[in-house]
Structure formats: C-alpha cells, structure tokens
C-alpha cells in the first residue's frame, strides 16, 4: 500500500516540477553572472549596473548599438563644437522639447547643471565619475532657451564630443527642490580641497543623497528613462517594467536609441555557466550574453539546440594583450621586446582559448574599424628562430652552446643582466593561463626561464602599477569612438594606467596628436602611424580581439548584436511570431 | 577571532577597484586625470568607506630622513578598529563597501534563503540517516552494497554531485524533469518555489547523509555487541526492539559532534550548491565578499558563523548530558 502511494507522490512532484516557465507577452529574460551591486547613477561599478541604469536614466547622448556610435538621447542633436584658443572647447547642446520627468516637468538645462555639480560635490559616492568629468568646468545656460546650454571644457580632445554627453541626467527637484546648489560654481566644486572647511549646504545635500539611497532604491531618484525597477532580490534577479506613459512615445519618428519595446525585462543572476546553459535550453532564460566559447560552439553544433536557439557573434573591442615592463633593464630595449613577441603563437592561442572565435590583430585598434586599422602591418608571426637572431642583435648571449642554456648580457654599468621573465595574469583566468603556458614552453625551447605568477584579481592592478612583473597578460577594453590613449600610452601615465612604463617624446607627441585630431582623415593617418610605432617599439603585444558571443531564443528580434558592451540592445528587443519556431 | 579577521583583512590597502574608482587601464578611457585629482578621489573614497584613519591604536611611523628614535606612534581612539568595535557593541555591523547596504540587512536576506534550505536538508539527512542506520544494523542482504554506495557518495566532491544532478535531471538532452533556476512569478508565494528547491535539497541531503549514516551504523553495530544488548536479546527482545529502546540512545552520543558541526554549516550555507543552483544564500554572499574584498560583510559573516559554532558546541554538550548521564 505504501509503495504505490509513494510512487504516486513522486510522480506528482515530477509533473509539477517539470513544467517549463514559458515566457509571457513581450517580456524578456536575460542572464547575468553577477548582481549589479548598486544602481546609483553616480556609480557604475560593474557591467551589469551600467546596463541596468541605462534602462532607468538617459544621457544627452546614448549608444546606438546598431551603428556602434553615439546618437542624441536627451539632446536633440549631437553637440555643436567650437574650439577657443588652444585650451578650451565649447560644446553646445539643446535638450529635446518632449523630454520630461515622470511628473510631467520638463528636463531643463538646470537639471544638467545640477547633475554636473552633483558629480563634483563632496561626500557623495562620486569619486570615480568626478575625475572622469572634471574637464567640464562650466555650464553656460542660454538666457533665451531653458533647454539650451553650452559646456565649457578645459582642454581640447576629439572625444569630448562624446564623453561630454555620456552621463545620466538627474532631476534637480528630487534632491534639491530649493536649488541650494545653484549658488555654487562648478569650477569651485571641482577645485574644492579635501581639507576645506565643512559647508552646511553641501553636507545637507550629501545627507539627503545618503538618505535617499538611490543605489538600492532608484525610485527615490527617478530618471527619465523608459523603465522603472519593480523588484530586486540581491544575487538573484531584477525586474524592470516599462513606464505606461513615457515621454519619448510621442516622438515621431522614434530614434533607435529611444526604443523601449519589452513591457518587462528580467535579469536573472545565474553565476554558474552550466546552469545558465541549461536554463537557456529549458526556456527559463531568453538571452545569454558572453557565452563561453566552448559552450557556444557545443550548442551551435547541437541539432536540438539549434531548433530553439539563435547564435550571434560580433567582434568586440576587447583586445587580449601581453605587456612588457619596459622599466626593467632586460626589457628596456625594443629588440629584446620584439624578440620575445615572436614567441606567441597567436593562431594556436586563438584556437585553444577562443575556439577560433576572435580575430588576430596587428595593433590595439580593432580590425573592424577599417579606416583606422593599420592593415599594412603583417600579423605577428610565431618565429623562435628569428627571436634568437634578434636577441643576439640586442647583445644577449647564451652561456653554453646548448639551445637551452641561459641568456645573459652586459648591462651599461658593467652588471650582468639575465633574461628571465615573471609573467602575471589574473588568477583563474584559463585563457590567460593558456597563453602564459604557451609562451613559457616556447621560451624554454630557447633557454629563457619564464615563471607564471597568477595573481588575485583584486590585487593585480596594484601589483602591475608597482611594476612587480616582467610581462603581463590581460584583456583591455576599448570602444570604437574614443581614441584618446593618453592614460595608457603616454609617459605621464607611468605608475598609474600606463602599466608598461613605455613613453618616448615621439610616442607622447603622437598620442597627444591622436587625442586632438577632430578630422577623421587626420585621425586615421595618425592612428595608423601610432600602430606602426607601437609595433616597432613593442611595449605591448596585442594578440587578438575577442568575440561577443550571444545565444538567444530564436523568436527574439531586434537584438542589435553589437561590438559594444553589453553586445545587444535589451530595450529594443521584440518577439517574433510563434510560427518561426518551426 | 573577529578582531583578528578585521585587522588582517584591512592590513593591505584597498586598490582603486575596491575603492570603486574607474579602471583607467582600459583603452579609450580618455584623458588622464591629473595626479592631484586622482589622489583627491582616492582620499574621498577612503573617507566615505571609513578606511582613511589608522587601522589600530598604534602604528609604524613612515620612514623619516635621518631616522626616528621611536618607530611607533600612538593613534589614540581615532582608529578603524576602535570605531568598528564600538559600533559592533552598539549592534551596528557596518555597511558593505560594494553596495552601501547595512551588513545586517545583507546577512539577514542571505540567511532567509539559506536557513530554510540547509535546515530542511539537515533535518532530512538526520531522519534518513537514522532510518538507514537502524535498517543496516539489522544486517539485511543489501547492507554491503548500501555501505559501498554511501562510502562512494561520501567520496564524491559536492561540485561533482551538484553538477551531476543538474545534468541528469534538468537537462533537455537527458531527463528534463526539474527546473534549474528558482523564480516565483508575481503573487506566487513560497510554495511556488518548492519545485525549484528539490535539486539543491537533494544535493545537500546526499552530501550530508553518508557521514551521518556510516557513523551511526558503526556505532549501532558496536552497541549491539555490548553486554547490555546481549542481555536484552537473552531476555527475549527482538533485534528491532533492542536497537530502538537500548542501543540507539547510546549510539547517538558519538553522533552529536557531527550534528553540532551541521549548525555552523547551516548558517554558512553551502557555497557550491548556492552557486550551481543560483541561490542568493550565505555561502554565495561570503564567497563574493571574499573575492571582492567587501570586508564589512566578510567580518560580519565570520562573526555570525563563529556565534553559530559556539552555540552548536553548547547544544552538543547539553545533548550529550541528556543522552548519557555519565557525561559530566
């Protein structure tokens, strides 16, 4: 009697469990691997927080994933640029007439001015954004048009046209209804010393901001974006719902960057990759970005998976590079660096780490941006024989005649230099480890000792900044529209973001010229020159660009697969008819 | 212990990423902020996170040209440890570096997910172990294969077990019976989540069961060989009655330390199971806090697990006294 009852209960439970949670209406469910941590508009510490905040808030300019460029968002057009002398840039914007906050009040230049001041006010979690936007020194409002204003930027750089419009505009009325911040000049807030006397107005603002806690309760600082957060369970899921009345609905034609089609977007946090793939296969998830290359190929080769899933790849702007510590005497000369660069077997590494998904590169510019890519340079070859010749030209000699004998040379002050390398990369990053192992094996054939030092992610950057490495392996993120490399390639960045320590007067001049070039033709010429110079000096070895890999339900339309993060436009997605499943 | 964890965790300075500053080493991050602006930003972030002050009551002086006769300096009460201890005594566990939420709130939310799951798993594992051990002690024909199976299960790493269950029972290419991700729809209550908890629960029960069952089976076998059990059998009691009325109580005493170990594990959660089954529990929270150097959450978690450990030891002692009067 007991056995049939137990069997019946188990069968009932299985029937109840096995029902797939089919999607309803035009909702979209997207997999994330980690919680966004905060939705504070002044901070975007993770990729997920940046994606989520783009649903809640709008910037003057928004990323157009279809075109891989910036398009007007809250602004009605791209800014009008005027250079003043050789040290100021004036950027004139006008806000869209239709743009309003949720309470129907218009978005005005005063809100932009308030946001800029909030980004520089003390006591707020704005430390990161503060340094990014401190080139905007003043907002000059147009006395005749409350929506028109000019941003006065210190310095001149071609990327100002984009970066000056890439921050979320926040409502002054929500945090500073009495306009207490209006009495402060933006430049004064930027230049305010940490030891300045406490200011009651600024302290009160910081208290109000902390009490509002917009990082956890974004509804207290509502943006003028198309969605609102309706639920957030930490480390589990976030749900965004489309506002029933959103100001951009009245725009005709509706710009691509202001499309908001799904009525609900769920982000499901599934840290484990195997679980995420199963959730996608079962229909619990509709879109899975950043699929590991191995899983991507496995799914693509499965007949059953292909019936319900669609596969998208685009070349990202993430370039995997190896960087030399040029401050080390053994690596200070370019011949040695050129020789060592010949020990990377890039085609094999692409196959081993990316399953062939990705693209070799000659420089740090993506091969996708054809006008800027130095296609005259040949891809770097795997040539240990040539490496030996270059090492000998650099003055290195092997201690014995055997191929695996150690290499030494006389230093400038009579010291003996040893060619032995310590390679650092983020621990648990298998792709970097594979690259390190391949390099070590090739180096061992020549008698060069290589020690792999995987380093914890949270301390890697500090270790590299301190120069405690000979070679690093890391993926560097880029984008298709900002070509200002002063932070990573200029000698002024040594000890900070310029990890290789490289910088010559010629390279500095070229990096500065690239940053200043407004004309696409001039910029293209300079960028090609920069890539040639980098190949010649070889402070870093760009190995390959990674692919964005997305797997989605076959019925999803308008994903706008893009080379830019996150690789798709969540708000533009629609569902195709059921029949397309056949 | 918590003081030690606090001091050790804050010994190393926080990196720019830990301070929430942008990663300037990316391409196209634009112009380099000047050194003064960068230092100001770091200083402001340290002040906001409460790590700008000296760590302890005394610290080593920065090396001075010409040397210093006294290399140590007294910092007084204006130090991180003093503030942390004072706040802790007032019931303030601090706020997370990463999201600014109070640590108590974060731990509370994670416990609300972990405790029902691990509690149910522990209760089930205990009940099953008891039933299994009582059955095995009667030496049925399936005793040997069952013991081999239990030993095999005990040797299996939890990650392999969890992934194996997932791939076997929630896989469209195998048996597509169970869901992989727990999400209740709008208006659905806790019971809607029950089907989603079957796999993690099964995983936890299967990982805890072997040790409990094997230990109890061995203890019961030993007790059955004791003089009092022989006497009971000689008086005509069936083996089942000897086991349940006499041997079980004594066999439970060596099991108590194992059960006591379960309580801190209940609080700490099962990291692997929570990651594999996407559950926002304590294990997941503490693992994340460790990798992202979210020290306030990490120290709060250590305090909580430590308290649970102490409580479990007290409970184990009380249980041992209740089961065996000879235990002082």
Automatic annotation (TrEMBL), chain A:
One of its GO terms (cellular component) is ATP-binding cassette (ABC) transporter complex. GO terms for molecular function: peptide transmembrane transporter activity. It comes from the Bacteria. Residues 71-479 form the Solute-binding protein family domain. Coiled coil: none annotated. SUPFAM superfamilies: Periplasmic binding protein-like II. Keywords: Signal, Transport. InterPro entries: Peptide/Ni-bd, SBP_5, SBP_5_dom. Pfam families: SBP_bac_5 (PF00496). GO terms for biological process: peptide transport. Belongs to the bacterial solute-binding protein 5 family. This is ABC transporter substrate-binding protein. It comes from Hymenobacter nivis. The lineage of its organism: Bacteria, Pseudomonadati, Bacteroidota, Cytophagia, Cytophagales.
């Amino acid at each position: 009697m007991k056995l049939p009852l137990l069997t019946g209960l188990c069968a009932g439970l299985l029937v109840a469990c096995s029902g797939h949670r089919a999607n309803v209406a035009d909702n979209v469910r997207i997999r994330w691997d980690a919680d966004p941590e905060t939705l504070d508009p002044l901070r975007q510490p993770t990729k997920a927080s940046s994606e989520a905040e783009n649903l809640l808030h709008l910037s003057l300019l928004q990323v157009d994933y279809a075109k891989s460029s910036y398009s007007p968002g809250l602004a009605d057009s791209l800014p009008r640029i005027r250079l003043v002398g050789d040290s100021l840039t004036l950027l004139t914007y006008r806000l869209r007439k239709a743009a309003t906050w949720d309470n129907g009040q218009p978005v005005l230049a005063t809100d932009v001015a308030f946001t800029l001041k909030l980004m520089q006010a003390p006591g707020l979690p704005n430390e990161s954004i503060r340094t990014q936007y401190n080139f905007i020194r003043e907002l000059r409002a147009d006395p005749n048009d409350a929506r028109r204003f000019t941003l006065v930027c210190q310095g001149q750089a071609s990327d100002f046209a984009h970066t000056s419009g890439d921050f979320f505009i926040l409502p002054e009325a929500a945090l500073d209804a009495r306009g207490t911040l209006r009495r402060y000049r933006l430049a004064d807030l930027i230049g305010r010393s940490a030891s300045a006397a406490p200011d009651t107005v600024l302290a009160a603002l910081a208290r109000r901001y902390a009490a509002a806690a917009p990082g956890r309760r974004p509804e207290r600082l509502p943006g003028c974006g198309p969605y609102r957060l309706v639920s957030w369970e930490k480390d589990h899921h976030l749900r965004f719902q489309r506002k029933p009345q959103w100001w951009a609905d009245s725009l005709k034609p509706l710009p691509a960057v202001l499309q908001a089609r799904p009525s609900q977007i769920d982000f499901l946090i599934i840290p484990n990759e195997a679980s995420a793939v199963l959730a996608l296969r079962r229909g619990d998830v509709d879109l899975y970005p950043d699929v590991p290359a191995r899983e991507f190929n496995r799914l693509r080769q499965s007949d059953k998976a292909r019936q319900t899933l669609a596969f998208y790849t685009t070349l990202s702007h993430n370039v995997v590079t190896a960087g030399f510590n040029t401050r080390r005497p053994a690596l200070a000369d370019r011949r040695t660096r050129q020789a060592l660069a010949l020990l990377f077997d890039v085609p094999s590494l692409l196959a081993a780490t990316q399953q062939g998904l990705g693209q070799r590169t000659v420089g740090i510019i993506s091969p996708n941006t054809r006008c800027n890519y130095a296609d005259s340079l040949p891809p770097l070859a795997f040539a240990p024989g040539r490496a030996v010749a270059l090492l000998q030209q650099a003055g290195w000699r092997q201690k014995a005649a055997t191929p695996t004998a150690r290499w030494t040379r006389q230093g400038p002050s009579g010291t003996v230099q040893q060619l032995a390398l310590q390679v650092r990369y983020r621990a648990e990053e298998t792709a970097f480890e594979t690259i390190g192992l391949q390099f070590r094996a090739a180096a061992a054939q020549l008698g060069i000792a290589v020690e792999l030092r995987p380093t914890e992610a949270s301390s890697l950057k500090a270790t590299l900044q301190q120069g405690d490495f000979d070679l690093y392996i890391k993926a560097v993120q880029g984008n298709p529209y900002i070509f200002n490399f002063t932070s990573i390639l200029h000698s002024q960045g040594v000890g900070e973001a310029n990890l290789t320590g490289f910088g010559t007067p010629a390279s500095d001049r070229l990096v500065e010229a690239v940053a200043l070039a407004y004309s696409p033709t001039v910029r293209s010429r300079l960028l090609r020159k920069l890539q040639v110079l980098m190949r010649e000096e070889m402070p870093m070895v760009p190995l390959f660009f990674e692919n964005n890999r997305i797997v989605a339900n076959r019925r999803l339309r308008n994903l706008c697969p893009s080379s830019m993060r996150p690789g798709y436009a969540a708000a533009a997605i629609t569902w195709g008819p059921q029949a397309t499943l056949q | 212990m918590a003081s030690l964890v606090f001091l050790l965790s804050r010994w190393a300075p926080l990196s720019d990423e830990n301070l929430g500053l942008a990663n300037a080493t990316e391409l196209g991050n634009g112009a380099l902020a000047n050194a003064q602006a960068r230092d100001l930003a770091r200083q402001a972030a340290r002040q906001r996170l409460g790590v700008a002050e000296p760590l302890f009551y005394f610290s080593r002086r920065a090396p001075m040209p010409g040397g210093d006769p006294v290399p140590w300096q007294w910092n007084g009460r204006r130090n991180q440890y003093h503030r942390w201890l004072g706040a802790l005594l007032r019931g303030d566990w601090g706020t997370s570096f990463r999201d600014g939420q109070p640590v108590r709130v974060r731990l509370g939310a994670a416990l609300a997910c972990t405790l029902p799951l691990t509690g149910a798993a522990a209760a089930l594992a205990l009940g099953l172990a008891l039933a299994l051990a009582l059955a095995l002690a009667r030496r049925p024909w399936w005793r040997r294969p069952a013991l081999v199976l239990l030993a095999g299960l005990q040797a299996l790493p939890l990650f392999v077990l969890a992934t194996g269950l997932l791939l076997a029972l929630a896989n469209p290419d195998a048996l597509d019976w169970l869901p992989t991700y727990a999400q209740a729809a709008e208006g659905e209550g806790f019971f809607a989540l029950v089907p989603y908890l079957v796999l993690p629960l099964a995983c936890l029960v299967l990982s805890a069961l072997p040790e409990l069952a094997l230990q109890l089976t061995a203890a019961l076998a030993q007790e059955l060989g004791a003089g009092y059990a022989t006497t009971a059998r000689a008086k005509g009691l069936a083996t089942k009655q000897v086991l349940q009325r006499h041997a079980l109580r004594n066999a439970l005493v060596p099991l108590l330390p194992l059960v006591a170990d379960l309580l801190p594990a209940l609080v700490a959660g099962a990291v692997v199971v929570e990651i594999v089954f996407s559950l926002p529990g304590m294990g997941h929270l503490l693992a994340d806090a460790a990798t992202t150097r979210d020290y306030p959450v990490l120290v709060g978690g250590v305090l909580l697990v430590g308290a649970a450990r102490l409580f479990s030891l007290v409970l184990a002692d009380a249980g041992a006294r209740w089961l065996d009067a000879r235990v002082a």
